[in-house]
Amino acid sequence: xxxxxxxxxxxxxxxxxxxxxxxxxxxxxxxxxxxxxxxxxxxxxxxxxxxxxxxxxxxxxxxxxxxxxxxxxxxxxxxxxxxxxxxxxxxxxxxxxxxxxxxxxxxxxxxxxxxxxxxxxxxxxxxxxxxxxxxxxxxxxxxxxxxxxxxxxxxxxxxxxxxxxxxxxxxxxxxxxxxxxxxxxxxxxxxxxxxxxxxxxxxxxxxxxxxxxxxxxxxxxxxxxxxxxxxxxxxxxxxxxxxxxxxxxxxxxxxxxxxxxxxxxxxxxxxxxxxxxxxxxxxxxxxxxxxxxxxxxxxxxxxxxxxxxxxxxxxxxxxxxxxxxxxxxxxxxxxxxxxxxxxxxxxxxxxxxxxxxxxxxxxxxxxxxxxxxxxxxxxxxxxxxxxxxxxxxxxxxxxxxxxxxxxxxxxxxxxxxxxxxxxxxxxxxxxxxxxxxxxxxxxxxxxxxxxxxxxxxxxxxxxxxxxx
Length: 468
What we know:
The chain is mainly alpha-helical. The chain has helices at about 20-50, 60-75, 85-110, 150, 215-220, 230-255, 265-275, 280-290, 295-305, 315-345, 350-355, 360-390, 390-400, 420-425, 435-460, 460-465, and strands at about 125-130, 130, 135-140, 165-170, 175-185, 185-190, 200-205. It has a seven-stranded antiparallel beta sheet, with no helix packed on it. Strand 2 and strand 3 form a beta hairpin. Part of the ABC transporter complex MalEFGK involved in maltose/maltodextrin import. Probably responsible for the translocation of the substrate across the membrane.
């Protein structure tokens, strides 16, 4: 008779075995964090209604307090879970710095969230307000506009019932939000009376964050010829040529410096490694000075040779060439180091046998070195392409996306890549701090990067290797 061992109960001290136990533990910890976050949010909402000037970080205080109280309770319900509490920091960091940004980006991509529509009171529309004796009606005699009051308050419905209006005292330092019951021609009827402690002097509207569906994506593709397509083509070209140039330079220098008969090769390696050791912020700023059209040493040297100065950073084509050259300076040491490391794994007996057979140095490189380096360099080149596809730093530091190019959007100039285009849209004044449109661009970048990665992996045979 065969006796089947029963799996341990979730209430026992012994944790569940295998992948099932891991998933149960992670699930319990995620539920604990989610419940604590929900409790913290509810308590912070109550706190805000009782204490309108409560600081925003109170939600973190309530969440931490809920975790402190719920953790021992979960430990009593599942005694074995205490062994998994070391996962708390990892799960919290993943949720806070990976999951939450992704969720917010996807959410904002379908809204009108921007510097103007931020969910905050509109200080530019602030107007004088007069409170009635019953403290329920706000009169707005001088709004400075002929538009209807419903349009001024940006109401969803004509009666504005359920909307919010923001009131200030004379100092206008703290906003007070009140629900609207109805509106007149120049008056707002509140759902509840204004407290006696508030002496109303000003009123304004709230610039709400509304859902707009696919409007952001429609705007992007409607202007694709002025932003999306030229920026995308340059991003691909920039990443591709950077990888090719850096790989060729790294291979040539690595093969030359690996020669054991070369005198002083360690000195050469050290000197050629310096561009990678120096922080890119310093190196790029140095190149900005070197490429200055009037005072840069590069054009000064060309002038001594009788050549005209080159507009390195002031012409769209030359600016792209400048970016490739500077990125070559920054990137070839890494490829050179990778080449030297990979060459050290090749057996010297292969070269000795080839020399006995009469093969020249170039024939040895063709028949032995390059084929054996291919497997090592394939993942390096793929990762380098993915890195340079989103290499925001050099674009921002060297050209800031410029120079300007006629017929292009102000946020997507001649050397802007997809990531810098999104950055300009979200944070630059030319983009109007349009976070929603930048989030839509981020989603497009994600799908483009995913598609390119799949093509690269397919071409490199990564999927076939994984099946073996």
